[in-house]
Structure formats: C-alpha cells, structure tokens
Amino acid sequence: MTPLHIETPLLESRPLSARAGRGVWLKMEALQPPGSFKLRGIGLACQEQAKRGAGRFISSSGGNAGIAVAYAGRQLGIPVTVVVPETASEHAKGLIRQEEAEVIVHGPSWQEANAHAQALIGERDAFLHPFDDPLLWRGHASMIDEVAAAGWRPDAVVLSVGGGGLMCGVVEGLRRNGWDDVPVVAVETAGADSLAQSVAAGRRVELPGIASVATSLGARRVCEAAFDWTARHPVTSAVVSDGQAVRACLDFLDDHRLLVEPACGASLALAYGRHEALQTFERVLVIVCGGATVTAEGLRALSARLGA
Ligand SMILES: *Cc1c(COP(=O)(O)O)cnc(C)c1O
Fold first, then answer.
1. Which domain covers residue 192, as residue numbers?
2. Pocket lining: 194 vs ligand 1, CB cutoff 6 Å
3. Is the pTM of this model over 0.90?
4. Band of the pLDDT at 105, cuts 50, 70, 90?
5. Is there an atom of ligand 1 within 6 Å of 271 CB?
C-alpha cells in the first residue's frame, strides 16, 4: 500500500544552529501536502478504514486533522464530512472545502461540534480521532523511520504537544528503531500546557480551558498513552509563551522561507531561545510539524498584539 504522505527532507539548519549554539536539524513535516505531519497517521488510519469498507470519513476538527482527513478522503475517493464549531476560521473552512469535503458548522465549541459528529456516524462511516488512536501513532512513527534510514542519530527530539498523538508516534518510532535512550523534549505554550501540568501533578490534568493562540495545541487533556510515556521514556517537558512561539514563526519564515503555525513555533522557539532543556545536547532534531491554518498577515497581527 503506497502511503498518502510524502517522505520529507531532513535538513541541517545553519540559522537555527547558530541561534541555539548547537547543531539543529529539521524534519520538514510542514511540507506534507495538507501542511502538517497529521497526514502520516491520518493517512494510514484512512487507508485502514477504507480497506475495512468505510463509505465515509467523519472528523470533528476545524484544524489540521480535519484538513488531513479531507485530503486523504479525496485521494482515496471517499466522501468526508468535517463538523467544526462556530469559532473555526473562514481560512480553515476554506482549506477543508478546497479538498471537496463537506463542512458542517455546529455549536459554540469543539465539544458540541464533536458531539454532533458522533451523532452523525452511520453504519459505514469511520470517525477519525485527531490524536488518540494507536493506528495514528503508527503512521506518525514513519517520520522517525526516515531519519534512521538517513543514517543520522539525534541526541534529542524536540516536538510540540497538543493531545499527544505526535509525541506517541515519535516515541514509537524511536523505540522501533532501537533508539530507546533518545530523549524527547515535549513543548507546549502557556495556556495549552496540559502535559506540563500533568507531569508536575503526577497525574493527567484537565485544563479548565485553552488560553493560547497556538490553537492546534488546544487539547484540554493529553491522551493517556502520551502521559504514560513520560514514565517509560526519557521525556522533558518545556513551556514557552505565545509571544515566543509567534516570534519563532516569523524568524523561521525569514530563515527558511516557510510559514508555520504558532503550534510549530513553540518547538522552534526552544532553539531560537537557547532553552535550557537543550543544554546537554549537541545534535538536536526539531520536528517542524507545520500547520496550514495561519496566514503571514495573521501571524504579524498576532505578533503586534502580543508584542512579540
Ligand atoms: C495537531 C498538531 C500538533 C499537536 O499534535 P498532537 O498530536 O495533538 O499532540 C502540533 N502542531 C500542529 C501543526 C498540529 O497540527
């Protein structure tokens, strides 16, 4: 089965290495056709569901997961319905419709949109979860297979955490390549720091709400598997401000000519800011997770508002 995702470049970044004071390599997931790493896991899950006879894919994400499901459905010739809350941006809805998926706007927040999506699921429909599904993690893990196949071993992997699906996939990828001792630095923005708060409390914490502009990191609670990894794999949790994440996006746009969301800027901010979590590493791999829901103008407006 040919995967729906593409193999992405692994680049050494001179500008980020200079700023971080150590070698920084980038896994360019922003170059996946729908704009984020999510296609790796969602593509695999959609192919599996298609094999099992799914007649329609349903998603409740107004962000990159919904865009990836819409892309996968069009590639596989299977119709897609994405239920999004009233807060979903016109830009994001446009990207989903551009993939020929049906967009249903329902409810004030994701909770209501998701409940409606669940109620729509018919006998031949498959629901695609944005982060909590072992199939998804298996698909995400392929990005680490590509790094291993390139014959390059990082001292640490820096990645962003929303619901924790990317983290579960990367840890799975490290372990299936015999890199059980390669640590993960898990980055969130303040106000979307559900993993950091869970690690500090020693149990899975649910945030009362999301108070960050990094909307793709806006899961109020990380999945159980991601929290469990923090006890079984070397994981350091780091938190940056919205301003640092947005500033990193603008710097990255200049340095690498690629537009990414603040959700991705959070990881880049660690390198740009010479964060202490990187102190002991010589060769750092940053997962450039991407994100398609932001515009250059939107980033600059955020930057002005945050004084970044
Ligand atoms: C989904 C997403 C994340 C977070 O991934 P999780 O699997 O929810 O932890 C980070 N960055 C971008 C751009 C995303 O789309």
1. 10-37+135-306
2. no
3. yes
4. very high
5. no
